[in-house]
Amino acid sequence: MDILRKTIVIAIVAFLGSTTIYAQNDFTNLQEAFSKSYKLEAQGDFKLAADEIKMFYKEESYEMNLRLGWLNYMAGNFNESIAFYKKSMELMPYADEPRFGYIFPLSALGRWDEVIEMYNVILENSPHNTKAMYYLGTIYYNRSEFDKALTNFKQIVDLYPFDYDGLLMYAWTNLKLGNKKEAKDLFQKVLLNKPNDASALEGLTFLK
Questions:
Q1: What local confidence, expressed as pLDDT, does residue 2 receive?
Q2: What is the pLDDT of residue 208?
Q3: pLDDT at 54
Q4: What three-state secondary structure class fits 178?
Q5: How many Cα atoms within 13 Å fall on the side-chain side of residue 73?
Q6: In whole angstroms, what is the distance from residue 107 CA to residue 88 CA?
Q7: Average pLDDT for consecutive 10-residue bins of the chain (208 residues)?
Q8: What is the pLDDT of residue 187?
Q9: In the prediction, which pLDDT does 23 show?
Q10: 198/187 Cα distance (integer angstroms)
Q11: Where on the phi/psi map is residue 194: left (φ > 0), alpha (ψ -120 to 50), or beta?
């Protein structure tokens, strides 16, 4: 009986040891695949970079799905990119990272209403995310929806009163809305941040 117990224990230890070695080898191969993928991406070989990851692809891996979302976007495979980013969002439902990634292929396909929806989702999750505010405000500005743009740029300037990008777009939006005094004050603040800034100087020419 003792011999049987010892045999079972030895077998279990051997099994666990082999499993650990296999897992370590598996990670080493995956790490090498990511390393090769980054090098190929730097060379502009996005398909080959994606192929390196696909060799070890696991549907439940957030990192692999996120990486493949990006590489397919860079390769111009926008629908494939969307699918991988969607999977990333399913795996990490509270993360903003895959949502920002998801916006890349949507923008490339001109699906702007969905882009706006995704920025609003990000802002619901992270109300002070100025990156989302800025890009959402810019979309509204380019659509001539200046009231909506103003709301986003004002929030940025409230949080970062001397931020160049926020101040500049807030100034232009005020100008478009006919708020000349506010626009002038804001363009002047831009010039304190970046003296001789061409865009701010251009804006001031409309206020003479």
A1: 58
A2: 83
A3: 96
A4: coil
A5: 23
A6: 18
A7: 52 44 74 97 97 96 98 98 98 98 98 98 97 98 98 98 98 98 98 98 95
A8: 98
A9: 57
A10: 11
A11: beta
Question: Residue 166: which residues within 8 A CB-CB, separation 6 or more?
Answer: 130, 134, 153, 156, 157, 160
Task: In the chain, list all ranges with CATH 1.25.40.10.
Answer: 11-127, 131-208
3-state per-residue secondary structure call for 118-169: HHHHHHHHCCCCHHHHHHHHHHHHHCCCHHHHHHHHHHHHHHCCCCHHHHHH
* Length of the chain, in residues: 208
C-alpha to C-alpha distance for 153 and 156, rounded to whole angstroms: 5
CA gap 127, 156 in Å, rounded: 11
Contact 123, 133 (CB under 8 A): yes
Tokens at 131, concatenated: 């990156």
What would be the CATH architecture of the domain defined by 131-208? Alpha Horseshoe (1.25)
Question: Is the torsion defined by CA of 24, 28, 33, 38 positive or negative?
Answer: positive
Q: What is the homologous superfamily of the domain 11-127 according to CATH?
A: Tetratricopeptide repeat domain (1.25.40.10)
Cβ burial, residue 161 (10 Å; 0-12/13-18/19+): exposed
* Count helices and strands in the chain by DSSP H and E runs: 11, 0
Phi, psi at residue 189, to the nearest 5°? -65, -35
Token pair in block for residue 161: 């009163």
Q: Which of 3-31 are b and which e, b meaning 16 or more Cβ less than 10 Å from the residue's Cβ?
A: eeeeeeeeeeeeeeeeeeeeeeeeeeebe
